[in-house]
Amino acid sequence: MTIDLYAFDTPNGRKISVALEEMALPYTVHVVDITRGEQHDPAFVAISPNHKIPAIVDLEGPAGAPISVFESGAILVYLGEKTGRFWPRDPVARVAVLEWLMFQMGGFGPIPGQVHHFVALKDETERRYGLERFMAETRRLYTVMDERLAAHEFFAGELSIADFAILGWAWRHERHRIDLADYPHVQRWYETMMARPAVARGFAVALRRPA
Ligand SMILES: N[C@@H](CCC(=O)N[C@@H](CS)C(=O)NCC(=O)O)C(=O)O
């Protein structure tokens, strides 16, 4: 039985298509076009009460009962629990995964997301303060990541759901005006991640309807 993925072609949507591919879970995509307001459709809000993608429905949830999950971090943990993959059983190893997953959910997502917003404003005076503020914080986050990756192959040591979460946003580095050459360890990790066949499939799957 497949998992239903409700998503759009954005960093938070891509995190989940990448994770589903890496975990070799069969899934069916349901495009929720957030540029057309489809995130407000009552049927979608019933499974995603925050009116945001991504969400999943797993018809074969715990004890065989269907379950829906919203919030990308919760989805990644759910899928890690379901498959036992990229989500260590060892409590110490699990702490590192949770730390970097929460780092992404609380910072490296909301902050570059603000850069995407301010950079799109046409009026230079309107956007200057916001852009400077959120660009500075975005650069700081990349520095934190670079320092971590200087000593670790992946964020939590072994490849984990934290890497899938962070990759979704790093994929948009050009849009938040980051040159990965300034962060060589992040660049090395990014190239390693993007070279994985399952990751490539996760980014290739259509999360947008043809125009
Ligand atoms: N914390 C949420 C954020 C989800 C999110 O911001 N989704 C965006 C697309 S990346 C969305 O659905 N935006 C539609 C809207 O805000 O109306 C998660 O990680 O799942």
Describe what this molecule looks like in 3D.
With 211 residues, this protein is α+β, with helices and mostly antiparallel strands. The relative contact order is 0.16. It contains nine helices and four strands. The mean pLDDT is 97. The chain has a four-stranded mixed β-sheet with strand order 2-1-3-4, covered by helices on one side. It starts with a strand and ends in a 7-residue tail after the last helix. Helix 1 packs parallel to helix 3, helix 1 packs antiparallel against helix 7 and helix 4 runs parallel beside helix 7. Bound molecules: glutathione (GSH). The site of glutathione (GSH) has 12 residues, from helix 1 and helix 3. Glutathione binds next to helix 1 and helix 3.
Elements, N to C (H/E): EHEHEEHHHHHHH
Main beta sheet: 4 strands, mixed
Question: How many angstroms separate the termini?
Answer: 30 Å
Radius of gyration: 17 Å
- Strand tally is 4
Strand order of the largest sheet: 2-1-3-4
Instruction: Name the poorly predicted regions.
Output: none
Overall shape: it is globular
Mean pLDDT: 97
Defining key terms:
binds glutathione, globular, alpha+beta, four-stranded mixed β-sheet, single chain, 53% helix
List the helices and strands and how they pair.
Elements: E1 3-7, H1 11-22, E2 27-31, H2 42-45, E3 55-58, E4 67-70, H3 72-83, H4 91-106, H5 110-119, H6 124-151, H7 161-170, H8 184-194, H9 197-204
Parallel strand pairs: 1-2
Antiparallel strand pairs: 1-3, 3-4
Helix pairs in contact: 1-3, 1-7, 1-9, 4-7, 5-6, 6-8
This protein binds glutathione.
Glutathione binds next to helix 1 and helix 3.
